[in-house]
Each structure stands twice: as structure tokens, then as C-alpha cells.
Queue: 3 jobs
Job 1
Amino acid sequence: MEIIKLKPAYSEKLWGGSKLKELGFDIPNGKKIGEAWTISAHENGMSYLSEGKFAGLSLKEVFDNHRESFGNYTGMYPMLTKIITANDYLSVQVHPDDEYALKKHNELGKPESWYILDCPENAQLIYGHNAKSKDELSTMIENGQWDKLLKNVDIKKGDFLFVDAGKIHAITPGVTVIELQRSSDVTYRLYDYDRLEADGKPRRLDLEDSINCTTVPDSDDVIVRNANKEVFNSDFFSIYILDATIENTFKISESASWLQLSVVDGSGTINGIDFKTGESAITMNGIEDIKVTGNLKVYISWIRK
Ligand code: ZN
């Protein structure tokens, strides 16, 4: 097993800021950066291998041309990891499932998940809705009854939320998450607080697609408080949080071909290699136990074989 660090792509956003600097990211000065795409093989923001014999190549290039190093996985790179720091409200949005996204955009659907790295006291996220039927959903959207329609949920640092395709959601100011999602960039915006683009025009909304894709009635909440160790398993991705101050070894319990490693707190070593907050890596050529020292917290993710 090799562990290869990656260089992220940065994404400028209206609601971005400079907080990623505090998490160790070398972001360009003077830009409102909202997202670091830390493990990505998506065209809209590619990660690059920063070491090993493929140093300088994109994750997509290496994945597509060296399937033998990834258990001969077929299909496009399935996951996308981002660190998101919100300086303002993100648009209220919903994502399609595979069926809708493949048909309309030739992209995968976009279930996603958030692990809260930082948030203000008494923070809330928008997570789900109160409409009982599609008609009621359309009416509430048309009439701008956002307070009535949108559900809020209290969050604290260390909480985990799964945001299935079809679930309305939004991140709020001051919140930092590591987001693991299916590799897709299809977002339908249903409300944007009436903000304008830099050119003064209202921001694009996707009301029809939003209504089509929203699960009604709302899907069940999937929230894990104080997430640690085995956090989440699904067909889209699985997550384990290894906290070196609690335990020092991770043994995978299901069959997978490679791991994604993201250090979300502290510093120390992973299988003898120095790591610090903000750094991410993938494994290639098999999976071995992950052994850590120091005080770091590693967010480990993979897709089931
Ligand atoms: Zn989203």
C-alpha cells in the first residue's frame, strides 16, 4: 500500500472568505475562497498528486490510466471530498439522484454528507422541509414562505449529517465542514436570499428541477452526534473517524480497493508519514491497516467493493 498526498483545487464563491488559511491551506490572497476540493477527480476542480511516480498528474488521469492500483474499479472516480468554509449563507439547494442526473446531465447524482469541523455557538443548518405534497411544496416556494417550508437543525462541532439526494439543505455563516459526496457537480438552487451576481443580475434559480428532485414528504434525518469511529456506511461512500488520542489503528471491516485520508485536526503520522490539518491523501496498490501517532484526527472514507 502506498499513501500519496494530494494538492487541492480552490473554488471562489460569493459566500467565501479566507478561513481556509487557518486550516493550513495555501489559498490565493484577496480572493473569496469557499471550498477546497481536497480529493477530487472532477473536471470542475481537480486534485493533483503531489508525490510518488505520478507527482504532478491529476487524480483523474492516474485513476483512469492505472485501474490496477485501484482494485480494477470500473466507472468514473466515485467520490469527492471538499472542505467548505462559509462566510455567508449558501444558497438553499437540492441535488438529483443518479437517475435524474444521468439522464439530464450525464453526471452522477449527488448525495452528500457533512462532518462539522467548526461552527458558531447555537448554529443551525437548513436540513429538510415541511411540505406534505408536491403541490404544497410548489405553493410555498412560489409564495416565498421560506420560514414555513425550511427545517432547521441544531449542530455542534463533531456532528455528522447525511444529505441524501432530494433533501433540501444549506450551510450557514461561520460553519466549516468536510463534505464527502458522490463525484458530481449538479446543484439545483431554489432560494438564494435574493442575492445578486457581481454583474447586478439576480442569481440563477432552478425551481422546476428543484421541485422535481425534492423528496416529498421529506426523507428521514440521518444525524450522528459526536461522530467517531464507524460513522456512516452506504452504497455511495463509507466513513470512519480515527482519533489518535483515542485509538491508533484502523482496520477496514468491509471490502474496498483504496482509501481516502483527510486530516481534519492536529498533526502526527499516518503509517510513518508526517501529516497535519488540511492534508489529504489516497492509498494505492491495496489496503493495509492505518496506524497513527500524535494527536491527529483522520477522516477516512472509501467506497464498498
Ligand atoms: Zn449541496
Job 2
Amino acid sequence: MSKKALITGISGQDGAYLAKYLLDKGFKVYGLERRSASNDNFRLKYLDILNEVNIFNIDLLEHTSIASLIASEQFDHVYNLAAQSFVGDSWNNAITTSQINSIGVVNLLDAIKQLSNTTKYYQASTSEMFGLVQNTPQNEKTPFYPRSPYGVSKLYSHWMTVNYRESFNLHCSSGILFNHESPLRGSQFVTKKIVSGLCDYLKDGNKYLELGNLDAERDWGYAGDYVKAMFLMLDKDDPDDYVIGTGKKHSVREFCSIALDKLNIKYSWEGQGINEKCISTKDNKLIIQVSEKFFRPAEVNELLADPSKANKKLGWKSETSLESLIEMMIEFELSK
Ligand code: NAP
Ligand code: GDD
């Protein structure tokens, strides 16, 4: 009989890629979505799997509905990907962010403990928990120092996952995933914003892009590679925590430069700090300017993964280079 997997946040970037991956592995895939007037499941449609997954319309905060679902379906795997995942919004929405990202997790863990204790659980932890990094590169032993309500809420759920594993002997694992992107990335995140903004500029030379901190450095990988690591964690006999990343970092400015080169746009960076601009060397038109409104109250300046534990124990490694990822994102954007 097919194994059953529940994915919370199935309408998001990772949820869609994970659903496709598990369906290809023969799983029966169930998804949790909160009701929304605007969500048209474009990612599941794009991957051509909307009709292959079973969707439950339940908010992660509806703990009684979550408990009855966990009790009645007895899932083999539960992947908790639902979250308020945009760091930039988390200062203005600190309470909602905490409720979804922290209390939502306890709703699931507690239901599993009481009603389905052989279910294997995956928690979507994050490199944002390293925040003001204490060591570089970051691995499973690096101390945490979150810098946003998002990071703090995720640190709570990370430790609750560890605690339920240690207290109740549950199969709970956390993937501490570094930034991962794809053509299906949400439009607020910087990589998607850069690629779609530059494609808009290419189509209409009067459009330009406004960004915040160009010096921030991230370890960017491809979401399609990262969902495999989630499965590998639950496929193992022993639950554990794993850092997942590429081991390479680039600044936001470098990401822009690679995308500009791929689009064959000739440019130069001019000025410094808040006055920095990217200008077309063909006609002097503005391509990118820095705007204070995209800076954060507290920034995570650099993130760089040391994924050696995942390489060794899961046999997982990042397969897609940043250059290929950017090409993939550009191709998708230009085909729209
Ligand atoms: P995403 O595209 O923002 O997807 C998040 C999903 O959660 C959306 O489908 C959203 O649904 C759903 N959701 C939010 N609140 C909910 C609630 N109360 N009840 C039910 N569903 C709810 O994020 P992602 O990039 O796929 O990331 C997946 C997970 O990994 C998140 O937990 C994120 O924090 C974590 N993570 C991501 C990265 C990354 O670089 N992508 C790195 C580390 C960790 P709506 O459409 O209704 O909002
Ligand atoms: N979004 C955004 N928009 N970010 C910008 C901009 C801009 O205009 N300009 C500069 N940045 C900088 C941010 O300040 C940050 O340092 C970096 O670009 C990346 O921002 P995001 O793409 O929004 O991602 P994030 O690193 O804050 O968070 C993502 O990765 C985390 C893992 O490290 C999200 O996917 C989180 O959910 C995830 O946990």
C-alpha cells in the first residue's frame, strides 16, 4: 500500500516541489491549505499535480481540526512547511508570525504525540536562526542568534521539535535550510524580485528596480534539490537535525550582476551606500537603485552553510549551481 504524506504549506514554493517529488516516489500526497480568496494553486498547476493531491482546507492554528486530521489519517510522514515565511514582514506582523510559526508547530507535534505517535515529522527550520552569525560557515553546532521575529519564532519551533523527539521518543527531524529559490519563488523574495524586475526592464527600458541592502550575502540553492533532503531525513531510521545549503555565498549585488550578464544587459555600478545605482552603459538609463524602504530593522549580513553532516549521513548534496538556477528563473520569467 502507498505511504501517506501530509504537507502543510503545499501551496508554497517548497510544498509544491515536495509534493511532486513524493508523488514520483509513489506516496499518496495530502496537503493542508488555509482557505483563501486569491490562492489559485498556480504552483501545483504549473507542476501539473493539482489533481493528484488531496487538499484539506484547514488553518494550521485550528488545533482541533488538525488533531482530528492527524488522528483519522495516521500519516506516515508529516512535513510542516506552512509559515509566515517573509522575514521582512515579520516585524510588522510579529504576533501572527509567532502564532503560525511557533504555536502552529506545537499543534502538529502535540497531535502526533497523542494520536499518531509512529508518524515521522519534518520541521522546516531555517538558517535565519543563525542570524548574527557566531561562526562561519554555519553547521549544526553553531550557536543561534536570530535577528527577526521570524527567526525567533522559528527558533522556538526548532527547539520544540528537538524537545518532542527527546521527551517522547518521536521521529521528529529539523532541516536547517539555507535560502533556496526557484522559478516558483514568492515575488517578495529578493532573487525573484531581481529576476522579474530585470526582465521587466528588458521589456520596457523605462522600468527600474528598487532594492535594499546590496551587501547582504546568502547561500542560495535550488528548491528542487532541497526537498529531496527533507524526504531523506524522514526516510532514515533515526531522527536528527541537518544543515542544508550549497557551501557557497554571494552578495545581493553579485546575484544582480550574474542575472544582468545572463540577460546580456551592459551595466555599471556607480555610487555607494544608499546612493548606489546600476546604470545602463548603452543609454545611461537607471536599472537598479537602492531604497531605504527595503532595509530591515536588523539585518542578517551573511549566511554560509557547512552541509557536511548531510553530505555524509544523508548522502545529500546541492546539485544546481547558482548560475543554472538564475538561468532557470530567467527562462521562466521570459516565457510568461
Ligand atoms: P512559502 O512559499 O511562503 O510557503 C509557505 C506556505 O505556508 C504557503 O503555502 C502559505 O499559504 C502557508 N501558510 C501560511 N500560514 C498558514 C496557516 N496559518 N495555515 C496553513 N498554511 C499556512 O515558503 P517556502 O519558501 O515554500 O518555505 C517553506 C517553509 O520552509 C517555510 O516554513 C519557511 O519558513 C521555511 N524555509 C524556507 C526557506 C527558503 O529559502 N525558501 C529556507 C529555510 C526555511 P498562503 O498561500 O495561504 O499564505
Ligand atoms: N526581500 C528583499 N527585497 N530582500 C532584499 C531586498 C529587497 O528589495 N534588497 C536587499 N535584500 C536583502 C535582504 O535584506 C536580505 O538580506 C537578503 O536580501 C535576502 O532577502 P530575502 O530574499 O527576503 O530572504 P531572507 O534571507 O530574508 O529569508 C529567506 O531565507 C530564509 C533562510 O535563510 C526566506 O525564504 C525565509 O523564509 C528563510 O527562512
Job 3
Amino acid sequence: MCGIVGCVAKENCYERIYAALSRLEYRGYDSAGIAMLQEGAGFHLRKKRGYVSNLKGRPLAGEAGIGHTRWATHGKPTDANAHPHGCGKFMLVHNGIIENYLSLKEELCAQGEQFASETDSEVIVKLISRAYTGDFFSAVRTACRRLRGSYAIAVLCSDHPGEVIGARQGSPLVAGASDTALYICSDIPALCGDADYICPASDGEFICIRDGKIQFFDEAGSELCKCFTRVLPESRAETSVSGTFMEKEIAQIPRAIADTLQGVSSLDYAPCARALRAAKCVYAVACGTAFHAALVFGDVVQNTVGAHVVCTVSSEFRYANLPIGVGDLVVAVSQSGETADTLEAVRLAAKRGAFVIAVTNIAHSTLAALADFSIVMRAGPEIAVAATKSYNCQLVCLYYLAAQMQYFRTQAYPVWFLSLRDLPAAAEAAFDCFPQMSALAAKWKDARGMLFLGRSLDLRTAAEGALKTKEIAYVFAEGYAAGELKHGTLALIEEGFPVVALSTRRDIASKTENALAESKARGAQVVLLSQSEESLNESCADFRIRLPNLPECLMPAVAVIPLQYFACRLCLLRGYDPDKPRNLAKSVTVE
Ligand code: M6R
């Protein structure tokens, strides 16, 4: 969840690390730090609680450096717990969790080591320091052999100016190169504008920057022959925009959907045809917003193809004792492609012999590397922690996948298939709801709780609307099955209680109407989003919001847009930053 960077550059090394850290900040923003190594002068260190911008100031001198932006796991967000951590001749930054850090810490304390932080990471730099007998790389390898858990690290050694060593196990790490700088980094977009060629490391590999070149090594210390690829312009993220990233990313939804449609329609599905046609059982795994997309996929496949899909949040997948095996299909959905829970679910599925299809936004991600077949959406970089355009694009990929499944089974596409091309325009039309959503956010600015109600596919949209509201506006919200309300939750409704209801399925609109009438009778203020003005009785809602008209099964891809915008407005009106919600990080690379 943290972001790390290491850089060797004769000029502007500090500035380059600072720029990369600013782009990695979506991974965590509890604290930030940079250590520079200057030949003849040793280390210069700056680290602080809070945002990367706290590291601004006169650049620290040095030709090699490492930087870190933290999402706190072990130890509070304090200056002392901020990385880099030092010991003797070494400085280290770490992303991941060292699961055996307590026993290592006890062992090191018994040997007389004293710790300056509460982090698990500090044990690594102590182990490296104790293993050092003059060979930097060998010390890092020896220390890594003692670690259990996940890590991506970057290390400096004052005996070796101009060198940075990185290691990867379970947390992402890439090498990047340009004419003027060599890097290791947590992701590719962070090297925007400064690395023309990149090469991801695999688990168990080491990256050594020394003598002006980048080398990869395996666990045994043997050099690996790896290929660098050119960084595509799409991988390059912007760092500053007017307004927030979340607003900008919502505005990009129609374009992102159009790009993704183009991508998925030009993909050759032949490599997964067999799995789509004959899978004994279909599983969908994901976390958070991506899980809501997986749930929509499950409903659509069930309704269109008639196949049952078992949807499980990734963190539960391993413990659910599912009878998964050869002949089964697993669809793993993840914007980042680095979510640890999803990766673990996929590793288990692959081990059992299932065919894995990844739906991700990052072509070079670990998920894409693990999967048998990847569908890469073209949402573009998503910087705000709250997922918006990536959700809409995940749905596009999953609709397309469901349609392919239908095609491989029946030689015919579903009736809604051609309407996929209407999605970009419909997404744009959904922006017409924004003035009403803005007014609603102002009206409900001080609400302490909200309910989002829906049935069937609308329930998935309701759940996503509630998640966005909790995540960035810090208002407790629940996405709830409209029909379940009367079985307990109705007790929460009192005068003025905000209820957002979705009703996009005409055949069950009257059932949703019952739940709204029950809520209104108890004093709830009800806003109803629907594509048809006639579908519901006038009296069951206080406000109506008209959605664009599409085949019902495609409605989740556009019905969510007003809710994304509503959450963003609510957040801004309550005085929070939608791009950096408290306690969270964009990429959850710890279990
Ligand atoms: O990168 P992923 O799609 O795997 O991330 C999964 C969740 O962590 C993510 O969707 C999270 O729920 C969002 N921040 C919600 O807006």
C-alpha cells in the first residue's frame, strides 16, 4: 500500500524522487520521506508525517536516493515511523508487511539492537546491516531470506554511492530507465516523463542499479536476462489538475468507456473460448468497488447465459472452502491488479487448476501476469482513491465477457449486445443529473446516515453509491435490498432520514414502490433514480431523477454516475478531500 522509489541520477536526483513520490501518493499519504546518498558526505534525510508536499524545500544533495509514501500498518503515522529507516551504513524503504517481524525484532533486541520506530520494516534494515561484510547485494539477499510476508524494498549503502538495490516478494516493483536516470519504483505511471523503458520484477527477484546500469537477479544470485518495454503514453499519469482528481475522473467516464469498448471489441477471445463455453462453474472474485462490478457480472451471466456465478469477496475466497478445480473459470476483477487479497485468491484458483481471466486497468500488473487471459480496460490512470471511471470500465469489460460467453455457447450474442455502443453517450447524458445531485448533497450535507435501496441489479448500484458515500464523505451509508427493509432496517427511518432509491427494472418497479412508500410513511426523504418517469407512483418519492434509457441490464454502468458525483459533492461540501480519504489507500497490497 505504500509507494517506494529508488533513483540514481547525476542531476536533480532529489527532485526526480519527489516527483515520483507525488505520483505514488495515491498508495498512501500518512507520511513521506526521502534519503539521499552523497559521495563523500553520506546520507541526508528528510521525513515527515503527512503528505509528500511536506518534503518540499531545498533539494537534498546526492546522486542516489530512495523515497517512500506511507499507508500505516505497524505504528501510528508519526515522523519516527516514517520511512526511510536507517541502520549503520544502510537506509531502506519498504512496502508490504513482514509477518514474522515480532520474532525477528525479539532476536535482534537480544543481540543488542535498538529500534527507533514501531514499524515492521525496521527489522529489514537491521538484518541487512548485520549481514554486511562488504558485499551490498549479498547482505540484502541474506536478509531477505529471513523475511516472511510481503515486501518491495529499496536500499542504499553508504559504502556504495551511486547504487540502489531493490527486492520484491508479493509487492509490486518495476525498474525504469532513461538517458539520465535509473529507477526502481512501485508502479509505472509514477515514472511518468522520466523513464522511457520499464521492466517489472517478479517475486523473488532483485534489481541492482550500479555502474550506470540495471541488472536483475534471482534468489540464488544468478543474473537474469530481462526485456525492457517502452512506456506507453497512456501509462503516464498527471499530477496536478484544476479541481480534484475525482471530479476529473468522473468527467472522463464517457471517454474511458468508449476507449474500453474499443479495446474489448478488438481483443481475440479464442484463448479463453474453451473456458467460456464449457466452464463447470464460474467464480468471480474482487474487492470493494471491483466486487460490485463482479456482482453485476454474476447477475448478467445468470440472466443472459443461464450459468450460475459464485461471487466472493477476495478476502473470503480462500477461507470459503469452495470446490474449485480443473474445468472451472475464475474471473478476477481489479483496477490496480495489485490487490493482495485478489492475488491470493487467484493464486489459489490457479493452483487448483482453474482457468483465470483477469479484468484490470494495468497491463503490467501482477494480476495480469498471474492470469491465463487478461482483459485490460482503458480507463487511463485513476488517481483518486475512490474508484469511479474504473468501475464503469470494469462493467464494460464484464458485459463484453458475458456476451462472449453467450456467443461461445449459442453462436448468438445477447439482445443487449449492440446497445453497448450507446454506453458512452448514455454516460454523458447521465451528467444532466448533476445539478440535481448537487442540490441533494447540499440538502443532506449534515445527514448522519443514508440508505441506498434497490432490487436486483439496482442493488449493486445502491451498494456502490453507499460505498462511495462512506469512503469519501464519512457518512454512514448502506446499500440495501429494498425488499429487506421491512425485516429490520426500517426501524432506522425517522423524520427526514435520507433514502436514495434506484428503480431501473420496470417489471419489479411496483415492488420497489412498496419499500419507498413504507419509508415515506415513517418520515423518510426519498429520492428516486429511474429511467422512466411513469414507472413509479408519483407519491412514493420526494424528488425524481431521470436516468438515460438503456436496456435494463446495462443500466448499472450509467445509473452509478449520479451517485459517484453525489458522493463527491457531499464530500467537498463537508470540507474533505475526495482524492485522499482518511485511513485509506488506492492500492491495497496487504492482506
Ligand atoms: O485495485 P482494485 O480494484 O483491486 O481495488 C479494490 C478496492 O480496494 C477498491 O475498489 C476500493 O474499494 C475503492 N477505493 C472504492 O472506491
